[in-house]
Specification:
- By secondary structure, the chain is mainly beta.
- The chain has a single domain (about 5-65, about 70-80), classed as Cytochrome b5-like heme/steroid binding domain (Flavocytochrome B2, Chain A, domain 1).
- It has one helix and six strands; from the N terminus they run βαβββββ.
- It has one helix spanning about 10-15, and strands at about 10, 25-30, 30-35, 45, 50, 75-80.
- The strands form two sheets. The protein has a four-stranded mixed β-sheet.
Length: about 80
Amino acid sequence: MSLDALPTYTKNQLALRNGQDKDQIWVAYKGLIYDLTDSRLWRNGKHYEHWAGQDLTDELKDAPHTERVFEKFTPFARLV
């Protein structure tokens, strides 16, 4: 499936998937949304100082890892 064919979600819809308002734990990076619900590093919607339900594109520069961490996950939607 091409990235253009992925479903789209707004920032407001993404914000609800923070592990607290809804059980899902989603984050966006460079316009793509990833489901991290099953990641042990994102329990309760928090990963160190980062919170789920957000676009983390601008925050990655503060992380101890590179964007390659997203290669472990498959994007399932696009952020609009």
